């Protein structure tokens, strides 16, 4: 059981780290949102699921699952709000042709 | 909302049922968070849930996105189908996240960012929220704007754009969401913006 928990935690760390690398490597605001908006969601969700498995079935793990659900609902909304604010204030997306 | 508008507005679903479901949900949430089963706390929790459900009832009555005189209740949707949809989406999220990992770690970074638009008129605002959130969660696409049923989506690769707006017909995800909320199957295609 603990091995499974550690595997989940490691997967979560991996996705979060890749999201951070993506934020550094991508060329403009919108593409960076891609990296942070998704890698983070899955990374945090996997880490919390790993912690819930480590804890076993109890009130604490139930609360952790609630946090996962709320992150899954709230993170896309945050990403969308950022993207919309940038779009409306006229940030031009980077394109391959304009290189 | 004033009372005159209330009389004319057609409401989908039962408000009493929504009230009961919301109270039960809030009470269950209270139980999990408090973890105490003494009678005093149960009564306080139930009272709080009732009051909260009562005060939010007008907030949860959502006007139709199609502009008709029609309203939808926030807790009126097929729960079981919604759950299966989220399980399917979870699988998609994991699959597509691996794709983004490959993109990020690829030294050449084969990306081709583009903004695509497509029209998906649906009357229920909850359906729009579900679809927009799903698009953002599936890596490769981020919903930028949504106006009158027109979606502006930023796609990072050609593949991601095509999976949402294929050459012919309709993408898998908009179709599933529409089916979930029993919306009519219509799609008008927008051009590509660059």
From TrEMBL, chain A:
The chain crosses the membrane at residues 44-74. Pfam families: PhaG_MnhG_YufB. The keyword Isomerase does not apply. It comes from the Bacteria. It is found in: Membrane. Coiled coil: none annotated. PANTHER family: ANTIPORTER SUBUNIT MNHG2-RELATED (PTHR34703). Belongs to the CPA3 antiporters (TC 2.A.63) subunit G family. This is Na+/H+ antiporter subunit G.
């Amino acid at each position: 059981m603990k091995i499974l928990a550690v595997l989940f935690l490691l997967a979560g760390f991996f996705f979060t780290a890749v999201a951070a690398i993506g934020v550094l490597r991508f060329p403009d605001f919108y593409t960076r949102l891609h990296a942070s908006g998704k890698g983070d969601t899955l990374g945090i969700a996997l880490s919390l699921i790993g912690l819930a498995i480590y804890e076993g079935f109890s009130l604490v793990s139930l609360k952790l699952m609630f946090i996962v659900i709320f992150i899954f609902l709230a993170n896309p909304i945050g990403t969308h709000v950022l993207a919309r604010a940038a779009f409306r204030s006229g940030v031009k997306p980077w394109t391959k042709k304009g290189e | 909302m004033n009372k005159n508008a209330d009389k004319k507005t057609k409401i989908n679903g039962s408000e009493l049922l929504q009230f009961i479901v919301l109270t039960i949900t809030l009470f269950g949430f209270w139980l999990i968070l408090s973890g105490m089963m003494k009678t005093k706390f149960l009564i306080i929790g139930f009272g709080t849930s009732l009051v909260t459900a009562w005060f939010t009832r007008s907030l949860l009555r959502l006007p139709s996105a199609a502009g008709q005189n029609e309203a939808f209740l926030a807790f009126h949707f097929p729960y079981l189908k919604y759950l299966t949809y989220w399980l399917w989406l979870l699988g998609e999220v994991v699959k597509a996240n691996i794709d983004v990992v490959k993109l990020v770690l690829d030294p050449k970074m084969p990306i081709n960012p583009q903004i695509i638009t497509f029209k998906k008129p649906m009357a229920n605002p909850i359906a729009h929220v579900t679809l927009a959130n799903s698009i953002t969660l599936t890596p490769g696409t981020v919903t930028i704007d949504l106006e009158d049923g027109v979606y502006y989506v930023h796609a990072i690769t050609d593949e991601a754009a095509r999976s949402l707006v294929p050459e012919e017909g309709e993408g898998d995800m908009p179709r599933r969401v529409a089916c979930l909320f029993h919306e009519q199957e219509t799609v008008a295609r927008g051009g590509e913006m660059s």
